[in-house]
Amino acid sequence: MKRYMALDIGDRTIGIAVSDLLGLTAQGVETIRRRKMEEDLQRLGELIHEYDVETLVSGYPKNMNGTEGDRCKIVTQFMEEVKKAYPDVGVTFWDERLSTVAANRSLLEADLSRRKRKKVIDKMAAVFILQGYLDSLH
């Protein structure tokens, strides 16, 4: 079975989550520290291969009023590079407006310190993005 992988794309990091083999649940994998486009794409490719990913689900950071701002352009441009590098992998976008808020809330409820939250927030946001997408499929 193939898996889904979610990306929470930021300026400094990319949060990564993958689905289980049944496509029901999302698990956080890692946070890629962004360096250069080639290095980011190389690490992403290693994860796509390792988890046998068929479809990438990119968070799409619309503004709260539903409009598309600069962040959407940045994400779209990054995903264009991903499509060039990995043409066999499907790409879809998922409205992520509240994913970081939800991730932060769940980490606060888990009573994680600010420093620990900072390390895992992007990965958790990717989990929320992917779980929302997976729930919409079922």
List keywords for this structure.
138 residues, five-stranded mixed β-sheet
Model regions low in confidence, pLDDT < 50 over at least 5 residues: none
Work out the radius of gyration. 14 Å
Total of DSSP H or I helical runs spanning 4+ residues: 4
- Largest β-sheet summary: 5 strands, mixed
Shape annotation: globular
Given the helix and strand composition, which structural class is it?
Answer: alpha/beta
Helix content: 40-55%
Spatial arrangement of strands, main beta sheet? 3-2-1-4-5
Number of strand elements: 5
Hey, roughly how much beta strand do the residues contain?
A: 25-35%
Quick synopsis:
The chain has 138 residues and is an alpha/beta fold.
Question: Can you describe this structure?
Answer:
The protein has 138 residues and is α/β, with parallel strands linked by helices. It contains 4 helices and 5 strands. The chain has a 5-stranded mixed beta sheet with strand order 3-2-1-4-5, sandwiched between helices. β4, α2 and β5 form a beta-alpha-beta unit. It is globular. The model has no long low-confidence stretch (mean pLDDT 89).
Summarize the helices and strands and which ones pair or pack.
Elements: E1 3-9, E2 13-19, E3 26-33, H1 37-50, E4 53-60, H2 70-85, E5 90-95, H3 99-109, H4 114-137
Parallel strand pairs: 1-4, 4-5
Antiparallel strand pairs: 1-2, 2-3
